[in-house]
Queue: 2 jobs
Job 1
Amino acid sequence: MVRNVTWRTWLMHAVLIFGTVILAFPIYTALVASTHTVRAVITEMPLWFGSQAWENYITVLSGGASEVGIPPVGIMMFNSVVMALGITVGKLSVSLLAAYAVVFFRFPLRRVFFWMIFITLMLPVEVRIMPTFEVVSDLGMLNSYSGLILPLIASATATFLFRQFYLTIPDELFEAARIDGAGPLRFFWDHILPLSRTNMAAMFVILFIYGWNQYLWPLLVTSDESMYTVVMGLQRSTAMPDAIPHWNLIMSTALLGLLPPVLVVVFMQRLFVKGLVETEK
Amino acid sequence: MAEIKLEEVRKSYGPAEVVHGVDLTIPDGEFLVLVGPSGCGKSTILRMIAGLETVTSGRISIDRRIVNRLEPKDRDIAMVFQNYALYPHMSVYQNMAYGLKVRGVHKADIHNRVNEAAVTLGLGEYLDRKPRALSGGQRQRVAMGRALVRNPKAFLFDEPLSNLDAKLRNQMRVELKQLHARLKNTFVYVTHDQVEAMTLGQRIMVLRDGNVEQVGTPDEIYNQPASTFVAGFIGAPSMNILSGSVDGDAIRFAGKAGLVHAGSLPGREVKIGVRPEHLCLRKEGEGDYCQVRAKVALIEPLGGDTVVHCRLNGGSDENIIIRVHPDEKVGENETAILYFKADTLHLFDAETQRRINGVQVCAG
Ligand SMILES: Nc1ncnc2c1ncn2[C@@H]1O[C@H](COP(=O)(O)OP(=O)(O)OP(=O)(O)O)[C@@H](O)[C@H]1O
Ligand SMILES: [Mg+2]
């Protein structure tokens, strides 16, 4: 028995290590590439770290990579952060309030409204991209943060999640607050928001990464380099006409662009897990 | 402090009417208990008084002011819920202070009132805890404290003790009674427990399927139940209800035993009610005793007294329960003669199930 168990433990670990290596390999490659000169990377892809790390990162961070088609990374990061935070905060606010309306208020066609929200699950930006672009462009929001953010802030997923959570809040809580003299807005602020804290944290992580990874939409609505986000800016820089892509610098930029979502996950992990598994309030 | 008045109050959910016209005046400072079986509309009536439920028709007034269209917060009432409904993310202190804070009471004033209530309820050392770190009894006290600090015109309770264990329930019952004696506010208390109703209520309203069966003091409810339903609902073990038939000026029941009545009875059939504690196994002193023969089916010793389940002889196939002193020697399957005084029995109309008053009976 004992031998059997150790054998199985070994096998399990082997499988896990193998999976981890496969997942980590691209990141390793990017790390390695970001430490070499462009010549080394293009001629034969090295498998071990080079000595150009400092130079490469300084170049991208100081905006010196513009000549080779990579927009200044600081501006792109800033744009990405603004967009991701805007989308996250927008989605959270809209869906918290929408779910509140659907669960706690009796108004005509309540169910119809809920299902209308629900159906938008089937209409992500990619599907409605032409009309949405038309609207944003008519409103003169091309090349602006509002143009990047607004079309993305309705979220059926988050509304649904909060609705499910609100449904678990006993009616008596609302009634007790009514007797205590709290109106609907006060109840929302004093009770619903604090009770939704962990759910909000979980949604924050998911939505921030969703916002950060937006690619198609920023590609369409931004033509001005000063509005580029990291994810799309990178793509632009790999497709420079009549030039070799500077993979070493591109990879440095990509790794820098990975940092914010990683930090969000690392710092919110505990709340995130709690928000997903916790049912008791 | 306030008088609460209900006039012809009805409540419907869609087409279904669940409260069929309740008239009730609760004088200032009274402890009124609403009692009845599950689903009879007790909570609905209480919630209409609180303003959590709209009134379909009729009028509710508190302190001479019609409140039908008033929000709960404007009625100056406090309510204690069955599951306490404490705010889970707030400490005990914040839970109690919340209603005052929303009303814009001064911080120092809130502090004094919450601390005072905490002392009254013995919650002093728990003020910083969250509700989930409290026992059921402590949560219950916090719920009471939340009502207490506001010093409202009336307190409404919806089965506040039903989630507690038996011992704690008895203790809290006593404390509630003392609290009322001290505060002298109007209390409206919903329960399905007849012991709570009898011990707490200055007056009791017995409900059945949304109708008022009887309103009266515990003494009236117990000694002059207005219907067979009230008779059976209040008192444990419940009152024995036997069928009787009217034959001239005699009433026959349990086969051949009989009663003589003076007065007019509405029909040919009556119900005769006798409380288990009014039945005994032998005559005690002189008196106008009736007697029935019965076979002992089951004996339940409760310690303080013994409950004996019997089956009446005489082919009527009725069960009768008696409560006797534990020293009484009876064995199962024995035949016993049960005695009761004619003036302890209750007469009901068999058709309407209502009490028949003003008819004198004696053993015959
Ligand atoms: N929201 C509602 N919609 C439809 N019917 C309801 C609603 N609330 C209560 N009822 C019905 O009204 C009747 C009275 O309910 P109520 O809650 O007042 O009973 P209760 O006497 O408090 O019972 P319990 O002792 O079980 O709490 C019940 O038959 C119930 O089914
Ligand atoms: Mg109830």
Job 2
Amino acid sequence: MTKRWIAGIGVVGILGWLCQYFAFIGSPPEKSMGNLIRILYFHASSAWIAFLSFGVAAFFALCYLIRRRPILDQISSSSAEIGVMYTTVTLITGSLWAKPIWNAWWTWDPRLTTTLILWFLYVGYLLLRGSIEGLERRAVVSGVYAIIAVADVPVIHFAVEWWNSIHPQVIDETGINMPGSMLFALMFAFVAFFAIYVLLLAVRTRQEAQRQRLYRLRREIQEVRGRAADKLQPDISAHPQLQMSVPKGSK
Amino acid sequence: MNSVQVFWTLVWKDLRAEMRGGRFVVSCLSFGVLMVLIVGMALNAAPHLPASWASGLLWMVLFFTTALAMTRHDAKEQEFGGWMGPWLAPIDRSLVFYARWCAAWFMVLVASVGLIALFFIILNVPFPVAFGTFVAVVAAGTLALSGAGTLLATLAGQSSLREVLVPILLFPISIPLFLALIRLTWHALDPAVIAGAAWVEIVGAYLVVVGVLPWLLYELILEV
Amino acid sequence: MKGVLALTGVYKEYNLRPVLEDVHLRLEPGQRVALSAPNGSGKSTLIQILAGLSRPTRGAVTWSGRPLDAAARRCLGVLLQQPMLYGDLTGRENLVFFARLYRLAEARQLADRWLAEVGLDDSAQVRVREYSKGMKQRLALARCLLHGPRVLLLDEPFDGLDTASRAYFEGRFDAFAKAGGTLFLVTHHPEEARQMDRQLTIRFGRVRES
Ligand SMILES: Nc1ncnc2c1ncn2[C@@H]1O[C@H](COP(=O)(O)OP(=O)(O)OP(=O)(O)O)[C@@H](O)[C@H]1O
Ligand SMILES: [Mg+2]
């Protein structure tokens, strides 16, 4: 188990360094934007990973609603949390990029706007999840919300696009017209970010699972203690009022 | 008796409870009017607003009012465990959602009639040229909005942050609806502005989704 | 058709903590069953699961061998610790409302008849929020008997009732069981439990005969 984790972290670390090498040194400056293109490698790949992680969150939420395994809910919520992080990175890098290009930190560019709304959608998710008592109920409610939110994303995107289509596509971020070395750097950044995502998801899910396991173990210890106390008092049934101190449940 | 009658029974219950000391309509209306007033002051008592601003402000006021009012429903259902009564009855449980939606829409509609009248008077907005379109947009818009609000209020019903959370969830989720309603209202105020059919489709899509989703999910959300 | 309400292999957890474990229970028609156990041992949870109000973590609730669905809920009369009434409606309106939910004919007359039965005709037009505890309990009992259920699931039904209405409801429940109804009653009073045909208790989350 530990070996696998070390290997995973090592691979992600190497990928991260290589990604920075390609982004900052390997790829040439762009014709019109110059070195600003380098932000794009991080911006675009974190945006993609953000979308991916919300999709994963919704998928596992659906699985949870069908199968009711706690692990599915843990994966779903961890993925949404990581998605919020990537969305934040997207927004910050987008802003950094927009300032020199459009001469403003913020424009009502459809993609930027959609991303911001997306951020709010999932901050709402985190608030909702954080404020509900009861594990099962929390899982069900946040699962339903995760599904609704993902279904809403394309609608938001198109609506914002129709609403504000005055901005020309400054750059085609899909990168079809990029030179090969830039495209390579972008793809590499995507792969590296994906690896980071997978690692974070694994760590976070494991953490949640361990937390629940710990909780369960603590309960079981309490029960064992309670039963032991029960055995020491064989005539407990004669004293109904004493039964109140006996924990219930068993294994 | 069939499902339709049961549905009306549930709506009747909500409306009756509202008339007995629920202050949904009154609080909606007074909050909304207050917002109109504040907006008027914020605009420095502008003598006339462009139609695009007027429609945007109108829906902003309606959104805030509905979002804040949506959570008022829940406390009464919880008080003596009343919500479990319909849950035990031999009916499809999602019917409870549709009845709540209908009752909420009715109350929002009553409040918005007063609100819109005062909006036009206080902000000195010219009477909508395409009045029929305007009425249709307001009716459909408040229907979709109260549906989404009821659904999200149900989701947030178990949360300790319920009152704050409903607006926080409702706004991002319904931004396309918001944009569509503004465009359509703008069109109603000034028919020279063309509103694409896409906006009508968005409102329709919201109505369909809010109509179908609870049928599948409502029972699930409220299960204990 | 006489139905059997049954639990098979029911587990219920709250926050990963087992409350009920591997519960198998059959409630036969005409049987009077008492359940008594200490506070917090899962009696109310069990009733809620039987009534289809709470979803078991694992296991199934069946009515005559089939899953408990909307149609089967018609046969259940359920009284929980909460009265399940609306504070803003009057006593009469509450009963009319529930009669209509159960699609009963002549809801108003039925409501009036039940209000008279449980001795609330004087307070029929008073809002339930202004009722005393015992009055709410009577109204809640009227609510769960109103539609002529075949199974009664009662969580501490005599809680807050005065002697006269208690005797009245005891008589009513006996008659109900004689007529072939299933009575499942949670009580903390040993003498009440002894009057029943079958006594159950919950220990370590498992339901046992006692
Ligand atoms: N909604 C809930 N969330 C978390 N735990 C709950 C919930 N409802 C009940 N429990 C727990 O389940 C256990 C059983 O509760 P339940 O209400 O069924 O007990 P009870 O036997 O009816 O007690 P009483 O005699 O006081 O009515 C309790 O330990 C309680 O803490
Ligand atoms: Mg109880």
